[in-house]
Amino acid sequence: MTPPDTQSSLPRTWKKPPFIANPLLRYGLLILAVAYLVWAFGSLPFNWARISEGLPRAARIFSGGFPPSFERFGLLLTGFKESFQIAILATLLGVLLSIPFAVMAARNIAPLPIYLIGRAVIIISRSFHPVIVAILFVAAVGFGPLAGILTLTLYSIGFVGKLLAEEIEEIDWGQVEAMRAAGAGYLATLFYAVFPQILPRQVGLSMYQLDSNLRASAVVGIVGAGGIGGTLMNAFGRYDYDFAFAILLIIIAVILLSEGISGWVRKKIW
Amino acid sequence: MLEINNLVKRYGHNEAVLKGLDLKVEGNCVVSIVGASGAGKSTMLRCINRLVEPTSGSIKLNGTELVNLKGAELRHARRKIGMVFQGFNLLDRLTVMENVLAGRLGYVNLYQAISRRYPQADIERAFVLMERVGIAHYANKRADALSGGERQRVGVVRALMQEPEVLLADEPTASLDPRTSEQIMMLLQSLASELALPVLINIHNVAQAKTYTERIVGLRHGKMIFDGVPSDFNKDALDAIYGGIEAPDDSITEPPNTSAEVARHDSA
Amino acid sequence: MVDHAQQLADRVWQRYDRKARLLRYAVLLATLMLVFWAVRDIDIFWPWVWDAPNQISGLGARMWPPSPAGLNNIFNALLETVHIATLATFLTIFLALPVAYIAAQNTTPNRAYLWLGRFILVASRSVNTIIWALLFVAIFGPGVLAGILAIVFRSIGFIGKLMGEAIEEIDRKPVEAMEATGASKAKVIAYAIVPQVMPAFFAIIILRWDINIRESTVLGLVGAGGIGVILQGAIDTFAWPTVATILIAIIVLVLIGEAITSLLRSKVL
Questions:
Q1: CATH code, domain carrying C230
Q2: What are chain A's partners, defined as 3 or more CB pairs within 8 angstroms?
Q3: Residues paired with residue B218 on neighbouring β-strands, in sequence order
Q4: Is the distance from CB of A245 to CB of A230 less than 8 angstroms?
Q5: Does C18 fall in a domain?
Q6: Answer CATH for A72-269 from 3.90.1170.50, 1.10.3720.10, 3.90.580.10, 1.20.58.340
């Protein structure tokens, strides 16, 4: 069908079009990336002498850690109980307090100055890793679960508050107008037209936050804010590796369990 | 020559989908396989290149038994069987040229495949075939930027790149509008004679089957109940194949997602 | 007429039906009891709680104004933090992708590999970065290597899990087409799977890099390098104005990280 002579006009070679069309940009980015890797590796202070001792140390730690020892089960239980309590109370406080902050940080229902304050609180509490917040609270109110509760409350406000504020900004505005048309005041509008729309989300978020607080409560203890983290830190500090590994195993088990439960409950609600 | 003998396919412990099928295709003959949804057309085609494992029976392509091939032997056999799909099955995020060259994957080595350094002969063949079906100017376009008819042309060229000894087309026109689907059928018909290639086409549209193919095979419940030339395909044959199931003549096209596909996607 | 009025009067408006209401009350009661137990049982010296606002504002007052001294040190520590996060994210790619590959139902070679992959993902995800850091500090001594390894070990689970899910969600059709051409498994992966998961891959790497920047800020608290080291030092020496400067520096770092990630997202995706 095709006459043979037209075939000679066809291109005879083909190369895959490169990912970045401009060759200067393409090779420039590549060189930049390699240069960065070299610079970063070169500038970091590695203590090779100490690192080279690592393997025998690892062997000693793991042989000391196996089998994990559950002898001090009482201590382990006390630590976990405290972690639970911290997580529960912080979730409750955090979820309740996140509502006013979310209202403040929602552009569509908060006046501008209030909005800026609300956003700032949420951004700041989200910028800091809970462990940094914990170390500050420990410095302020002393060692113990109180610092842990305060830390995770702030953490929850940041996380739940942000998502909730986004949810409020996306509500069906018609309901708010209807309430205003009926002569409702600001608070009445909030309670009848805004909160019902965000409530289902809030319940799901609370479950998620409880799970996430439980995870975080295990680590804030490392800097002295109560719970199982402190027990773990002590075990590591005293070279009780068999007890430390026992704690780690239980932490993993509890986290898996809590993730499973929280996922199941959220599926039921949504 | 493709020769199928007593082919049986059963999924799990359900009723068999194919119940002892015999089929012989010789020369460069275009065969259409018609039948209602679930009659076993698609399963039969996929048994030939072993995308579906046959339960029992024999399939011979030019004397080679395909049913018990494994590993590299199976891949070598598959190179000789081109396939065109209902949903085109293109590599959407890659260029048209890469899609076409993918037809050579059974021939090139892994380094050539990954670095896209295909032999010169493959690239030339790709341009010739793309020119033949009118998509050569799209070589460096992404496959998902093309229209349905153009995408199916890419699918056809990819299959032909394999230098197949038989071409299988599984509802190649079912996702296309009526005009485009006529064009694709015409293309398959003329390619078959140009390349002296036997072509098996699963098709829902009886009118197209009669117009563009030389032989019609009718399946119902996994059994062949008609095999003959289009002029013999009369009202009785139609009733025997589709009777009590659906009205086939009106169904020029069907929606791209058949219920079976949707169900499979859900369970995945 | 009378009947109709009677019917209207009998109608009571209820928000939830009986069973749903009972369930709600039961959940509420259980929650209340749990909270009551937690409050009663927790080991807190309550007078401290009432004093906490004073203490916190006192600490805030001691921090103000932030001290500009040692800004150079802080900058270098921030750079180290970024290096740790970036190098760790980069290294994780090579470790997480094979794990994702064996932990995805549709690409795993066999069930043993599937469960091995899942085990690695679960183990990596369940242990927090700072706990990984604790372990690596014990092995390799304090320093950035422990930090990098901690971030790597935590990120494997994150990237591996999300990449595994991306692999499981691909469209099967191109895979089928590639198998039909007689392509081997490696070629099917290169042509039908890799292009499909590329967008997800970039999105996941960018997301994890952002998270890793935050995580790297705390590594130093257990001695694993980065800005945390000098934060811990400043707190230990009660240099509160310096602490304030470091905190501000961390916020700036995190915000810059977020800006870069959103820029990358809009450019690459």
A1: 1.10.3720.10
A2: B, C
A3: B34, B226
A4: no
A5: no
A6: 1.10.3720.10
Which chain C residue lies closest to B84 (C-alpha atoms)?
Answer: C177
More confident residue, A15 or B187: B187
Residues in chain A closer than 8 A to B128 (CB atoms): 2, 7, 10
Interchain pair A10, B97: CB under 8 A: no
Contact call for B95 and A17, based on CB within 8 A: yes
pLDDT band at C7 (very low <50, low <70, confident <90, very high): low
Shortest Cα–Cα distance, B132 to chain A (Å)? 7
> Omega into C66 within 30° of 0, i.e. cis?
no
Longest dimension (CA), chain B: 56
DSSP H/E element including B24: strand B18-25
What is the DSSP pairing of strand B56-61 with strand B30-34? unpaired
Residue with tokens 């339960």: B55
Q: Are C130 and A215 in contact (CB under 8 A)?
A: no
Inform me whether the pLDDT recorded for C6 exceeds 70: no
Please tell me which chains touch B, using 3 or more CB pairs under 8 Å as the contact test: A, C
Query: Which is more confident, C247 or B39?
Result: C247
Please tell me the pTM assigned to this model.
Answer: 0.85
Q: What is the pLDDT of residue B257?
A: 40
Taking chain B, what is the end-to-end CA distance rounded to the nearest angstrom? 37
Of all residues in chain C, the one with the smallest CA distance to B160 is C181
Categorize the per-residue pLDDT at C11 as very low, low, confident or very high, splitting at 50, 70 and 90.
Answer: low
Residue of B122, B124, B125, B188 to mutate, testing the A interface (most A Cβ within 10 Å of its Cβ):
B124
Alpha carbons B188 and C37: distance in angstroms, whole number? 77
Query: Nearest-CA residue of chain B relative to A5?
Result: B128
| CB pair distance less than 8 Å for C144 and A140 | no
In Å, how far is A251's CA from the nearest CA of chain B? 33
Give which of B247, B48, B89, B75 is closest to B172, Cα–Cα: B89
Domain count within chain C: 1
- pLDDT per 10-residue tile (average), chain B, 268 residues: 91 87 87 88 92 92 90 92 93 93 94 92 92 90 91 94 93 89 91 90 90 91 89 86 62 40 38
Residue C260 has what pLDDT? 93
Lowest-pLDDT choice from A140-144, B25-29, B85-89, C252-256: B25-29
Half-sphere exposure (CA, 13 Å, Cβ side) for B123? 16
Nearest CA in chain B to C183: B106
Is B90 close to C177, i.e. CB distance below 8 A? yes
- Would C43 be classed as within a structural domain? no
DSSP label of B68: T
- Domain-wise residue ranges, chain A: 72-269
Task: Check: CB of residue B188 under 8 Å from CB of residue B205.
Answer: no
- Give B43's contacts in chain C (Cβ within 8 Å): none
Separation between Cα atoms, residue A54 and residue A60, nearest integer Å: 10
Domain that holds residue C212: 73-268
A186-195 confidence digits (pLDDT tens): 888 888 888 8
What order do you get walking across the sheet with B2-9 strand by strand? B18-25, B2-9, B56-61, B64-65
Contact A12 B139 (CB under 8 A): no
Would you call A12 an interface residue with chain B, using a CB distance cutoff of 8 Å? yes
User: Scanning every residue of chain B, which has its alpha carbon at the shortest distance from the alpha carbon of C191?
Assistant: B91
Q: Cβ contact (<8 Å) for B75 and C182?
A: yes
Q: How much of chain C, in percent, has pLDDT values that exceed 70? A: 94
Would the pLDDT of C96 be above 90?
Answer: yes
Query: What is the identity of the amino acid at C195?
Result: P
C53 occurs within a structural domain: no
- Domains of chain B, CATH where assigned: 2-267 (3.40.50.300)
Shortest CA gap A128–chain C (Å): 7
ipTM of the complex: 0.84
Q: Among A81, A128, A137, whose Cβ lies nearest the Cβ of C250?
A: A128
